[in-house]
Design brief:
single chain; about 190 residues; alpha/beta; Rossmann fold; seven-stranded mixed sheet; 5 helices; binds guanosine-5'-triphosphate; binds magnesium ion
């Protein structure tokens, strides 16, 4: 996919703040710090259009980006960050739930998991939830630069087993080394061309 234009649209909390243009949308979900915002930057070929941080809990609202005037990306707050207060967690949970359960434009959910670790229960719940509602899902294994290529298959099996995947592909990505980005773009494009 050639990125001709990419712009930040809005940082939204409530549904009435979501873009109302009706463009199809891709959402990026996963645990805090897994690399959601970094992948958006890599896909859009921008350094910091989506704000990243080494401290988990950076993204606290839903940030919308418009790509090529054709579709939107939605960068979501991460889940599973224990250091956030229960009240704050409930607030982010509410923001995500409202979005995921009531967004007609949402066509594809990218579920991000760290390639180094077995997915957690909340990742599994996220995946099952997305499948239950019939969303097209792509599974992305982030930070692939942190392990050697020879270890990929073992990690993929772990991810596949824990999430209960059937035939779905797992796409290894490194936002640091910029590997896997073209492949991920192809997969995203496939969802929209279908
Ligand atoms: P929240 O907004 O807190 O939910 O986090 P996030 O999922 O958006 O993660 P973010 O993109 O902010 O990245 C978190 C940290 O991981 C940052 O320090 C990034 O530099 C680092 N990181 C992201 N992607 C990669 C990668 O591919 N390789 C390596 N080595 N580090 C990465
Ligand atoms: Mg983020």
């Amino acid at each position: 996919m050639k990125v001709k234009s990419a712009e930040f649209i809005i940082s939204a909390v409530n549904t009435d703040q979501y873009p109302a243009e009706g463009l199809p949308e891709v959402a990026f979900v996963g645990r805090s710090n897994v690399g959601k915002s970094s992948i958006i930057n890599s896909l859009l070929n921008r350094r910091n259009i989506a704000r990243t941080s080494q401290n988990p809990g950076k993204t606290r609202t839903i940030n919308f980006f418009k790509v090529n005037d054709e579709f939107h990306f939605a960068d979501l707050p991460g889940y599973g960050y224990a250091k956030v207060s229960k009240t704050e967690q409930a607030k982010w949970g509410g923001i995500m739930e409202r979005y995921l359960s009531d967004r007609e434009e949402l066509k594809c959910i990218l579920i991000l998991v760290d390639i180094r670790h077995e997915p957690k229960e909340d990742d599994k719940r996220m995946y099952e939830w997305a499948r239950h509602f019939g969303y097209e899902c792509l599974i992305v294994a982030t930070k692939s630069d942190k392990i050697t290529r020879g270890k990929y298959q073992k990690q993929f099996s772990l991810i596949r087993k824990k999430l209960g995947l059937s035939g779905e592909k797992i796409i290894p990505i490194s936002s640091l080394k910029k590997t896997g980005i073209d492949e991920l773009w192809n997969e995203i494009a496939d969802v929209f061309i279908k």
